[in-house]
Design goal:
Elements lengths: L2 H6 L4 E3 L5 E3 L2 H16 L5 H12 L5 E2 H14 L3 H33 L19 H7 L2 H19 L7 H7 L3 E3 L14 E2 L3 H6 L14 H16 L6 E2 L3 H13 L21 H16 L13 E6 L1 H8 L12 H18 L9 E9 L2 E2 L2 H12 L5 E5 L4 E3 L5 E3 L5 E2 L3 E2 L6 E8 H13 L9 H34 L4 H4 L9 E7 L1 H7 L8 H20 L7 E5 L5 H9 L8 H17 L1
Parallel strand pairs: 1-3, 5-6, 6-7, 7-8, 8-10, 15-16, 16-17
Antiparallel strand pairs: 1-2, 4-15, 8-9, 11-12, 13-14
């Protein structure tokens, strides 16, 4: 049977994009063409054009694919000089092709996720704070590639606005070349969010979380404090990509404990406080019960964070830091903190938490303690001895040692210089407000390799000359100049969110956007040194290399500080996205002598020339 007869009888088949076939239906062509005409002229296509299309499609001499039939329609529109309509029809095709590609990508992700061992095996930017896999996690992970593109587009738009003469596409080129890594750019769909924070809990004491959109009023006792604290954590964490630190948690816990059992409760913690003779309860056991309530609650997955638990940090202090941080602190009722009871409570919590981790794998809180060290000794010997004992008992926590009471350890690896320590009755202790609102990490391994191989070449000069270090410094500063622009653009996006009322945690007084840092992360330091043939141990070459990197970044951080942008630096562990950068760089990373490195690099360059 001829194909035009098959078509007339409704038996001509069209091959769809997935390879299946279905009967040809001209009505589908008519609908698509009328949509294109309406987009341009606000009316359907002329009848004579529709008749023409029906005629030429009814006499096709073979089965056609969807694309072939659409090409016939385009050619007809051009033949009739409906150029504007043809343009709309092409846009319509492209739009639907894009939708189909997007849906196929997501379907492939779902299928890969279903057969993966865990979330980390399937996602593009895995998070160490996710365990297992379920549809709740899938719902958050599936959009990460979209989130990244949205974030990058928003940053490039802001770069164009702030720096008209700067090539905004350089941001994506730097990311794709792996010389920088933007932390958690996949976290929020369609929104720029701050990275991590250490908040003042004082507004929580006065207003609860009502100003964050919650219903809870101010806590009145230890029981309501512990319950509402969990609500505070999840309400705050929903607005940040990373960690939330509450340096004052135990300070406020102690405040309510003293209201409950008196200022000297810590002197007799085994005092029975229940009248039930069958189940007697002491102050200590009740405190442990509250610890358990809080810690197990904050380790639960949260729907607002893609089934992640909130990343929570606790801080502990020695006596000098307590005096420096809270010497002028006043609670809403006019009372003041008491070191003796807080010190006991800090030790009690640390010992309880260490033992509880033997019963259950508890990730949070991440703990850090700050100790003052002056004139060759720790000023608070009692706390120093306790810390040593805890380490001996197998407790895992961070210890920050400083010779001045001007820094706060509030995150797992971040030590921030306190910008102000004043107290006010709106925000409480302003000094605990800190954190990073954006983190961009430099891949030093890739940067040093690029400079050495692509900029100068091993055959031109030795690495340990003043010309080498001067050139590398300029090369590093050029990259930093771009990173400061990227940070500034991100910061301005945060202020746009703030002005739109989308970051109530700031307007509620828990933290000040200007008190947070824009962080320059450093990654691949040792790999970069090894690439140059420098051994990473206690030697002068390695010391010089580290000093060169750190001093250059510190110098530039200071030069680029403004009223709205303050920069700090942190060493970033190689995990997730950073680890993928290491895999890319490892093909050029030579462990061994400097001469062997030169030989391999020269061979690489020769291969490029002869290829």
């Amino acid at each position: 049977m001829p194909n035009f007869v098959k078509n007339i009888l409704g038996k001509m088949e069209v091959t769809k994009r997935n390879g299946t076939k279905e009967a040809f239906d001209f009505n589908k062509i008519k609908i698509a063409v009328n949509k294109a005409f309406n987009a341009v002229y606000k009316n359907d296509a002329p009848n004579d054009f529709i008749d023409y299309l029906e005629t030429i499609t009814s006499t096709l001499d073979s089965d056609k694919s969807v694309e072939e039939i659409q090409n016939i329609v385009e050619d007809a529109l051009m033949e009739f000089k409906w150029f504007d309509v043809a343009r709309e029809y092409i846009k319509y095709r492209d739009k639907h092709n894009s939708i189909r590609s997007w849906v196929e990508e997501k379907e492939n992700f779902i299928n890969k996720y279903k057969i993966s061992n865990n979330t980390a095996d399937a996602t593009i930017d895995d998070n160490s704070n996710v365990s297992g896999k379920n549809v709740g996690i899938l719902n958050a992970e599936i959009h990460k590639s979209d989130n990244i593109q949205i974030s990058r587009k928003m940053i490039m738009d802001k770069l164009k606005e702030l720096y008209p003469d700067f090539d905004s596409k350089q941001y994506v080129r730097d990311l794709e070349h792996h010389i920088i890594y933007k932390h958690d750019e996949s976290s929020f769909a369609g929104a720029i969010a701050p990275y991590c924070c250490s908040i003042s809990m004082y507004p929580f004491l006065t207003d609860g979380i009502k100003n964050l959109g919650g219903l809870s009023a101010a806590p009145k006792n230890l029981d309501s404090f512990c319950g509402m604290y969990v609500n505070l954590i999840f309400a705050t964490a929903s607005m940040f990509a990373g960690a939330v630190a509450t340096s004052e948690f135990l300070l406020y816990f102690d405040y309510f404990a003293r209201k409950e059992w008196g200022n000297e409760y810590y002197l007799n913690p085994d005092l029975t406080i229940s009248s039930n003779t069958l189940r007697q309860k002491s102050i200590r056991s009740q405190i442990h019960q509250y610890f358990q309530q809080v810690i197990y609650s904050i380790n639960q997955p949260a729907a607002s964070r893609g089934q992640q638990s909130a990343f929570v940090n606790f801080s502990y202090f020695d006596k000098p830091f307590f005096d420096g941080m809270f010497g002028e602190f006043v609670f809403p009722d006019g009372s003041v903190p008491i070191w003796e009871s807080l010190c006991w409570l800090q030790k009690e919590f640390m010992q309880w938490f260490n033992e509880e981790r033997l019963r259950c794998l508890l990730t949070f809180p991440v703990e850090s303690i700050t100790l003052l060290y002056k004139d060759g000794k720790f000023v608070d010997e009692d706390m120093y001895n306790f810390v040593c004992e805890e380490y001996a008992r197998g407790h895992s926590f961070f210890t920050y040692i400083s010779d001045t009471v001007d820094s706060l350890s509030s995150c797992c690896r971040l030590k921030n210089k306190i910008q102000t320590k004043e107290f006010n009755f709106t925000n409480g202790n302003m000094g605990v407000m800190t954190g990073s609102k954006s983190v961009i990490t430099l891949n030093l391994n890739r940067i040093v390799q690029d400079y050495t191989i692509n900029e100068i070449g091993w055959s031109h000069q030795e690495w340990n000359t003043s010309d080498f270090w001067g050139g590398l410094k300029k090369y590093l500063i050029d990259i930093l100049e771009r990173v400061y622009k990227y940070h500034t653009a991100y910061n301005e996006q945060l202020w746009d969110m703030y002005d739109a009322g989308l970051l109530p945690v700031y307007k509620a007084g828990f933290i000040d956007l200007n008190k947070q840092y824009l962080t320059i992360g450093l990654n691949g330091l040792n790999q970069a040194a090894e690439f140059l043939g420098i051994e990473c141990n206690d030697n002068e070459e390695y010391k010089h290399f580290c000093q060169f990197i750190f001093s250059t970044v510190k110098e530039q951080n200071t030069l680029h500080k403004t009223k709205k942008t303050t920069y700090n630096t942190e060493q970033v562990p190689k995990r997730g996205g950073h680890y993928k950068s290491l895999l890319i760089d490892s093909k050029l990373l030579i462990l061994g002598q400097r001469g062997a490195s030169r030989e391999i690099v020269q061979r690489e360059r020769l291969n490029k020339v002869t290829a």
